[in-house]
Amino acid sequence: MWNTKSTRIAAALTSLLAVSGLTACGGGSADNDAPVSANDCAMFGTGAICDIAAGRRFQLIVPATTTTSPRPVLLAFHGSPPSFGTPAKLNQFLALQKFADDYGYLIALPQGGDDWAWTSELQAASAHSADTRYALQVIDRLVSAHNADGNKVATVGFSAGAMMSYQLVCQTPERVKAAFTISGQAVGPLTACQPALPVALHHLHGTQDPDMPLAGRVSVSGKLINSLDNTIARFQQINGCATNYTQSAPWQLQTAGNLATSFEYQGCLQATGYTLVDTFEHQPDYVKSALHQLMHQLFDSAF
């Protein structure tokens, strides 16, 4: 029931306030199970692990501890080039190896294209974009070859990657059940976001973000970036939330000392909320332990 999930989210936030079998460059091909060479993985950095799905490479982060139980999955989408336009940069920004080690997630970091990186605009009806189809094949590959639990899949995305995360939970909620989105709202008509199931959502954003304003904008290529208010309101409707919400006391989430305030809507079928950080930065240096607790608590509530 949601009330249990809400309690777990609140407990995690209270805690935050109080404390303010693979080889490197190994894996297999999704197409023919041929080994992925060191040269193939080198694009992700020295010693990186990678694999292939739908003919496209993705970086793979594996927890340090071993287990025979299937692992939960996190799909992590980087921002547009050149700032955070690679899996390696996203891994560094969010300390994803540390997250995997601490919470046991198998993390896949797909490699996007140029410009916006992802085909992330919301699609009408049940249509899937090329990158949504790719993401689903990454999940299938993780399940078939890497002991992943296909029933426990979440996504995290930064900037343009957050837009991709929104697309996944809007259009494939039976496969991707939670999204933690950072500095990037849903793109395209929100009426196209009609998931058949409720999905867990938490959004993190700087109050004075110059690159991705809270009010939204239209890109030079004509893409409609929705406001955070409208994006969150859509998920309130999807998750059947009441209009009332709980608001945290200011707490430290940014290493520079900038304070954050978290909001959680009540009565939701799945956890629905957001956190605002008092900063002018698009990609602040977050306190990783606090950020990771917030992420994991959301994902755990959805499974």
Automatic annotation (TrEMBL):
Native source organism of the sequence: Arsukibacterium ikkense
Pfam family, one: Abhydrolase_2
Chief location bin: secreted
UniProt KW keywords: Carbohydrate metabolism, Hydrolase, Polysaccharide degradation, Secreted, Signal, Xylan degradation
Subcellular location: Secreted
Domain Phospholipase/carboxylesterase/thioesterase, first and last residues per copy: 109-230
GO annotations of cellular component type: extracellular region
Name this polypeptide is given: Phospholipase/carboxylesterase/thioesterase domain-containing protein
Signal peptide: 1-24
